[in-house]
Amino acid sequence: MGGAAVRSEGLLGPVVQVVAEPEGRYLDPRRLLDLTGMQVQDLAALAGVDRNTVARNPHSPRIQDAVSTVVRLLESATEVAGDMNRALLWYKHQPIEAYRFQTPAELVAKGHTDAVIAYLDDLRHGTYA
Hints:
With 129 residues, this protein is mainly alpha-helical. It has helices at residues 14-19, 29-36, 40-47, 51-56, 61-81, 84-93, 104-109, 113-124. Helix 3 (40-47) crosses helix 5 and helix 5 (61-81) crosses helix 6. The model has no long low-confidence stretch (mean pLDDT 90).
């Protein structure tokens, strides 16, 4: 998705702006998949639904919660990294020593999103270098 250079305007952060549906009421799972390179089955597993549910019922609460969780993580990473491109690069490719050199994307796929958000909070507060 070419929106990686989106600037934050008003209340919405850059990741929310890219992932939100045009009418702005819901987050679009397809846009999140395009932005992050996640696979449909990974998002479905994170939401605890069948992979077909992602396409058939993208507004379901479970899908919206899963998309929102990843968006929240990426917004936090964008704040720490300084821009969304760097945050996405970090998310996809940067191994985290404290988590046995797994990338944030790998940790999210395994259901450890809260651990990645906690790691980002530690970075923000100067706990990790």
